[in-house]
Design brief:
Blueprint (H helix, E strand, L loop, with lengths): L35 H4 L2 H10 L2 E4 L4 E4 L2 H8 L5 E2 L13 H7 L16 H10 L4 H5 L2 H13 L6 E3 H6 L1 H11 L6 H16 L7 H24 L5 H6 L10 H33 L1 H9 L4 H11 L6 E5 L3 E3 L2 E3 L4 E4 L1 H4 L34 H18 L4 E2 L7 E5 L2 E4 L3 E3 L4
Parallel strand pairs: 2-8
Antiparallel strand pairs: 1-2, 3-5, 4-12, 5-8, 6-7, 9-12, 10-11
Helix pairs in contact: 4-11, 7-9, 7-17, 9-13, 10-11, 11-13, 13-17
């Protein structure tokens, strides 16, 4: 399939950009917040790729880009597409009482996710020092300890909601431990961060907003105290890494540090990893032969996890804004167009993946988009992969006979545009 040119041509070619009302109507059917497109969007994605690979969705106010090569062409061209506004942190939609509690300005400083160069370049460079491969590798023993401690808490019960007891708390404990949060503070930090992300991404009832706003203020203060403490007494943790200035004296500001420690690290290191671990285990147990295959050959676990992420990743897509008139998939779009890059569709594109609906842990091409691509490739990918691998290794070793409780509702939900998850995963096994 022909790829979109790296430098998109504009109206100078004599063509006019396509307007929303001129595009195929198929895109108007898409609603990934509810209904069949939430539960199982993949048949619709296949139809999109074949019939309307570039089409407009009025509910989102965005153009859906569903083919792999078109998505890659956008991700690899930050000069034509902006990441600003991927995740809004505005207080405008909150009640006056909640706004007064939060104070002026955004709820929290922007993160690298919705920054463009050169600001993004600086932020990513300073953040990278906490995520070197050597530092991530040194976390394996601690991740395994935390994993086994959680399993110890329910292994004799014979049945458990794996989301509540394992897949949700594990990534939170790992990243909070890396940040330097004491164990006794973990639960309140998780509550505070839940309030933060709720106010940013979710439609929160007015009556609840003031209490959540107070949580956010407490969270900011907690992060500030932790940062100031590490400046005085550095330790072996991520906060200490981030507060250190570069040799030339460049350092992150306090609002930037609070955003990275209180927002970005928990979002990338907790919510997404938790959601992905839940869905990966679900997918493996839904097909017992997959679980059995990993029981017999645990060296397949890393590739099996990559294949799980390709088949059902928790990142439905990502947002970009055209800085100029652009051409995507042969369609000319006007400057200012908002694009939703449908990762869930691109990861099953038959033009890029052979037999894309088939689970194959031996697949040679594992280039899925769950960690994005280009300058915004997720810095936390090595840590997420480590957590996923260790968690699955220990589940298979300690509860090899785990199986799904039949007839359950997994509770798919998507309050955030860029995160799809399940609320529960009921599993059972025979206690020996």
């Amino acid at each position: 399939m022909a790829k979109t040119p790296p430098h998109p041509p504009g109206a100078s070619e004599g063509r006019k950009p396509l307007s929303a009302d001129q595009c195929p109507h198929l895109g108007r059917e898409y609603n990934h917040f509810a209904g069949p497109h939430l539960e199982n969007p993949y048949p619709f994605f296949e139809q999109l790729r074949k019939e309307a690979p570039v089409t407009f969705n009025p509910m989102l106010g965005m153009w859906l880009i569903s083919r792999y090569d078109d998505v890659i062409s956008v991700l690899n061209n930050p000069t034509a597409y902006s990441s600003a506004g991927v995740a809004t942190t505005s207080v405008d939609r909150l009640t006056p009482e909640a706004q007064a509690i939060l104070g002026p300005g955004p709820i929290i400083h922007d993160s690298p996710l919705n920054m463009d160069p050169p600001v993004h370049t600086r932020m990513k460079r300073l953040l990278q020092r906490g995520f070197t491969l050597a530092k991530v590798s040194r976390q394996e023993e601690r991740v395994r300890q935390l994993t086994n401690a959680l399993i110890d808490g329910f292994i004799h019960e014979g049945r458990v909601d794996l989301v509540q007891r394992f897949t949700h708390p594990l990534p939170a404990q790992v990243i909070l431990n890396m940040v330097g949060v004491p164990q006794e503070d973990v639960e309140k930090v998780r509550r505070w961060s839940g309030s933060l992300f709720g106010l940013i991404f979710a439609d929160i009832p007015p009556t609840v907003q003031p209490a959540m706003a107070r949580d956010v203020v407490e969270y900011r203060n907690y992060c500030t105290q932790l940062i100031e403490q590490r400046r005085r007494q550095p330790q072996e943790d991520l906060t200490s890494d981030l507060v250190q200035a570069e040799p030339d004296g460049e350092a992150l500001t306090m609002p930037e540090l609070i955003s990275l420690i209180g927002g970005s690290l928990l979002a990338a290191g907790h919510e997404t990893t938790s959601a992905q671990l839940s869905i990966a285990v679900k997918n493996l147990l839904e097909h017992p032969e997959r679980w059995q295959q990993l029981r017999e050959d645990r060296t397949l676990i890393p590739k099996a996890l990559e294949e799980c992420m390709r088949l059902e990743g928790v990142a439905p897509g990502m947002v970009r804004t055209a800085i100029q008139d652009v051409e995507v998939g042969g369609v000319l779009l006007p400057k200012g167009s908002r694009l939703f890059l449908v990762y869930g569709s691109a990861n099953r594109d038959e033009a890029h993946f052979k037999d894309p609906e088939h689970f194959d842990p031996h697949r040679e091409n594992m280039q899925h988009l769950n960690f994005s691509r280009g300058i915004h490739f997720c810095l936390g990918a090595p840590l997420a992969r480590l957590e996923l691998r260790v968690a699955l290794e220990q589940l298979i070793e300690r509860i090899p006979g785990m199986r799904l409780v039949p007839g359950q509702d997994y509770g798919y939900h998507q309050e955030m545009l860029i995160l799809r998850a399940i609320r529960q995963l009921q599993v059972e096994w025979t206690v020996s």
